[in-house]
Structure formats: structure tokens, C-alpha cells
Amino acid sequence: WIARDAAAVWHPFTQHAAWTADDPVVVDRAEGPWLWDVDGRRYLDGVSSLWTTTLGHGHPAISAAVAAQLAKLDHATFLGATHAPGIELAEALVALAPEGDGPELTKVFYAGDGSSAVEAALKIAYQHSAQTGRPRPKFVRLDHAYHGDTLGAVAVGGHDLFHEAYRPLLLETIGVASPGDRALGPDRLGTALSHLRSVMDEHGDQVCAIIVEPMVQGAAGMLDYDAEFLRAARRLASAHGALLIFDEVATGIGRTGRMWAAEHAGVVPDLLTCGKGITGGYLPLSAVLAAEHVYEAFLSRPGDTAPRTFFHGHTYTANPLCCAAALANLRAMGEEDAVGRAARLGERLGKLLEPVAAKDGVVEVRRLGTMTGVEVAPAGDRTGFRVCRAARDRGVWLRPLGDTVVLMPPLTLGDDEADLLVEALDAAIDEVFA
Ligand code: PMP
Question: Name one GO molecular function term (predicted).
Fold first, then answer.
């Protein structure tokens, strides 16, 4: 399989994933938090298969819902047609939407993955500015942000490794210091806040949206930050007539111990993107939750000379199998109190990681709910990659993000498995720093 893979397959982020490129795991099957390779070796899936398997692999209720949907309706266009799974899922998402300071989120626009949800949100924001006043061509983004790999999403990213190669092609953005950036020193919140304020004072009338990953910049290495930044971003966006976009592709669907990271701050954005865990990892689907006032700007009015339509939508938008999987996942999450369990699992991981945090070579352990990063040193020396490889030899699948080792297990991971996860990490660190 490995030779055939090497001959025919171009993998995503190929060089970046060099720690596995020589001998990738050939995954054969999965169940709960476990993966098996073709040689029958078992691995604990400590990163929920790239942060998606909310309740683990092979959840019976989700599998049954997808099978039932498959027997009934496999696909139908959402262009000029609709269907029960698409409607019911939108109703469920609206019912679950965060509440607090900000507008009610009342409409759901479907997309295919995290990047395409971000892409849709950026286009909505720009078009909204044009249709409610005049076009505002700029986006405010945070340093170290990751919002996906389509060109719009790349433009609002702040992670040079992924973005620098495409700079000449990108939208106009203004980068702001991140409140999660440890390099800013102890008052990183104050530094980021004053930077955001001065950018909005100077350029606010040019800005259609501020986009942030709320509470934690995930792909940057789980850089968590203070909720006050989000409250200030809400006030500043409203004061300057810009939209606030929360990209909850990573933080949403229970990951941080709340349904949405926005709830930690009591703030509601105008647009909220979600993806990853929404179908429980079964099928690709994402969505933009939009405030009613945003949606209204896209409704035709008497006397219009140009259509206000949102010119966006894909062949597989709201595929019924994907919607059925997401609906079953959200229902099962409610029945199993998955969000409460995520909060408790996060606390357990935090306790188990206390001795790890004190080890030589460990710079910092960062965590919000189950979103966990263990930063190791020396920086830039592939230390994170080596720790993950050593953990893999012990049957635990982790993921390096630069110098940070990520732990992001299914929300319902059992106590024994959480112990195993941290024990393997602990032993892997010992091996690498021996
Ligand atoms: N936004 C955030 C916050 C993400 O973490 C990611 C993926 N890591 C994306 C967007 C892009 O999602 P996808 O890979 O599904 O396109």
C-alpha cells in the first residue's frame, strides 16, 4: 500500500507532514476512539481524526441515520429545491446558536468544509457592506490565525508557513497582534486590544469585517486568550459598522467544553462558521450561521437595479447524507451530554498534564476544554514531530503543529483512555529528551 500510495497519491501539506511521509499509517478500520492499520496494529485516535470525530468513530446512531438517509435520498440539488434533512439541521443549529451580546443568529448557509465556510462568510461580509452602504474592501485579521486554505481564507490567515507563498494573490487585510501571542509578553491582551483599537480608529470605515478564531487559535498551536478581547472586538465592529466573524470551525460543536467558544465570552458575532465536528467526522459539511440583519441585506427590494443575491453555492451544498449525519450527531451529543463530558474530560486532561508541564523540554501546556496543546522546545527543531512519532510507536496518534503537540480526543473519551493518552505522551517526551 505504501509503495502504491507513493506512486499515485499527492497528499495534503506533503512536506509539512514529513514525519509520516516515509511510513504513513495505512488505516484500515476504526471504532470509538480507536484506529487499526492494515497489519492489525491499534492506535488511540488522540486528535479525533483531525478534530472531527466528536463522539468517536462508528457511532451507531449516526451510522444508522446515514444508512436510512441513503436508502431514501442520496443527493438533490439545493438550488431551487429543499429537503427535510437540510431544513431540520438548519433549525437545530439556529436553536443551538450562542446567545449574548450581539444579534440573534437565525439563518444557516451550508458549505462543504471549513475553508469554504470561511470563504462564504468573507464574501457575505464584503457584499453586505456594498449592499448596506458602500463597498468596504478590507478585512481585519489576527496574527497567527488559520482560517483554511482557499484563497480568501488564506488572505485572512496570519500563519506565514501556510500563507507567504500566495501573498501576491490575496485580498486586502490588516493584521492585528494576537492576544494569544506569547511573544508579546505578559500584557499580550493589552497590546492586542490597543492594536485593534488603533487599526479600527484609523481604517474602520474601510473594514467590512473582523475575523477571529474565538478563545483559541487552534492551528497556531492552541494559543488560548482572554475573552475580553472578543467583547472589545464586538464593541469595535459595531461602532465602526463592520461585521464580526467568529470562525468556530475548530472551537465549535463542544470542543472547548461549551457548545461554542463564543459562550465563554458571552458575545455573539454577525457570522459564525462551523465545520469539522458537525457531522461527527462522518461526512464533509460546514455552515455559516448568519444574523437576520445580514440576511436581510440580500433580499430584493422594489426599485432595485441590480440583484442582491448572494452569488455563491456548490454542487453538493446541503447534501442530504451529510445533513442527516450532522443532525444525528447533534441529537446524540444532546442525549449523551457530550458538551458536559467535554468540559469534564478537559479538566481531567489538565490534571493529568500537570506533571508533564513541569518536565524538561516542555515550555507550556495550553488548554480550553478538550483543545489541548503541549509546547515543546527547542523551537523549530522538529521536536514536536519527534514526540508525536514516539507516541505513535506507543500506539497513540497525536499531531504536531510546529513545536506544539496537539491532544484533541473525542469529547466522550473514557477515563482509562485519557490516562493512556497522557501516559504515552509522557513516555514519548522522556524518550525524545533522554
Ligand atoms: N478555520 C479553522 C479555525 C480551522 O482550524 C480550520 C482547519 N484546521 C479551517 C478553518 C479549515 O477547515 P477545512 O480544513 O475543513 O477546510
Answer: pyridoxal phosphate binding
